Amino acid sequence: MSIDTAQQDLPEAFRMEDRLPDQLPSDPFPTFARWFHAAHEQKIQPNPNAMTVATIDPDGRPSARIVLCKYLVEDPGYIVFFTNRTSRKGAALDAHPRAAVVFHWDRFDKQVRIEGPVVESPESESNRYFATRTAGKRIGAWSSDQSKPIGSREALLQQVRDAQKRFGVDPDAQTEPDPETVPRPPHWGGYRVWAEKMELWVGNRSRIHDRALWTRSLETTIGPEGEDSFTPGPWSATRLQP
Ligand SMILES: Cc1cc2nc3c(=O)[nH]c(=O)nc-3n(C[C@H](O)[C@H](O)[C@H](O)COP(=O)(O)O)c2cc1C
């Protein structure tokens, strides 16, 4: 089967700039944040905050999966996703605490690549985000030993029922149960991917795409809540051939 790769014309509403400015901005984050927020506001896809996160397994092999970017912190420049820290990606990040991330907004013809060290979110950040989740999603965090094998879907559903029972959540209740009754599991939390490199890629209808790479140093430090953190140096920008 062949796939027709001809690019479809975009509706006017989705058009954005089709090149980077001649004078590259000194910091790539404001441009990235503008695209990220526009993708949400214009509802260009069901999960505009979806990103591919590539890690290195303990045996040195790469693996990648999609997760949702829940926080984008322009200054000092990191993004945050949430997951089960005992998952395959958690084991990978324990062994090699670095990641490569890719966002692709097809309708905007934009790609953003971010690479850098990864640290666990401080407790307050994981708690703050967990507090926004419905009781059903909180139960999900307790009932799935993410990335581990399980004998059947029924066995998985039994784990969900067990977690509901443990926390007194009635699955047949007409109203959404109080999420406060389901605390954050100790193995569930955030990871901050600090941007040490960021590449912005802009598709251009003339097919000469535009691409630039920003790099900076990150000096290890301890954050205000005792978490692993970094003090960034200034960005340096280079245009790349597409
Ligand atoms: C659109 C989409 C969003 C997802 N968001 C998350 C997420 O935010 N956190 C998460 O742990 N898994 C998320 N997943 C599931 C992951 O892709 C993956 O299956 C899971 O995290 C296990 O990955 P691992 O075995 O490499 O650790 C998402 C999947 C899709 C398709």
Q: In words, what does this structure look like?
A:
- With 242 residues, this protein is an alpha+beta fold.
- The chain has a single domain, classed as Electron Transport, Fmn-binding Protein, Chain A (Pnp Oxidase, Chain A).
- Helix content is 21%, strand content 31%.
- The protein has five helices and twelve strands.
- The chain has helices spanning 29-41, 88-95, 123-130, 135-143, 153-166, and strands at 50-56, 62-68, 71-73, 78-84, 98-105, 110-120, 188-194, 197-202, 210-215, 218-222, 228-232, 236-239.
- Strands 1, 2, 3, 4, 5, 6, 7, 8, 9 and 12 form a ten-stranded antiparallel beta sheet that branches. A two-stranded antiparallel ribbon has the order 10-11.
- Helix 4 (135-143) packs across helix 5 (153-166).
- The longest helix has 14 residues, at 153-166.
- The protein is globular and about 60 Å long.
- The chain starts with 28 loop residues before the first helix and ends with a strand.
- The model has no long low-confidence stretch (mean pLDDT 94).
- The structure holds flavin mononucleotide.
- Flavin mononucleotide (FMN) binds at residues 47, 50, 63, 65-68, 81-84, 87-89, 146-147.
In this entry the ligands are:
flavin mononucleotide
Average pLDDT figure? 94
Question: From the coordinates shown, what is the CATH architecture?
Answer: Roll
Overall 3D geometry? Answer: globular
Kindly name the structural category. alpha+beta
Largest sheet: 10 strands, antiparallel
Listing every helix as H and every strand as E from the N terminus to the C terminus, the arrangement reads: HEEEEHEEHHHEEEEEE
Helix coverage percent: 10-25%
User: What assembly state would you assign to the polypeptide chains in this entry?
Assistant: single chain
Name of the CATH superfamily:
Electron Transport, Fmn-binding Protein, Chain A
β-sheet strand percentage? 25-35%
CATH topology: Pnp Oxidase, Chain A
Gyration radius, in Å: 20 Å
Extract low-pLDDT stretches: none
Number of helices: 5
First-last Cα distance: 28 Å
State the CATH class. Mainly Beta
Number of strands: 12
Q: Give the tally of structural domains.
A: 1
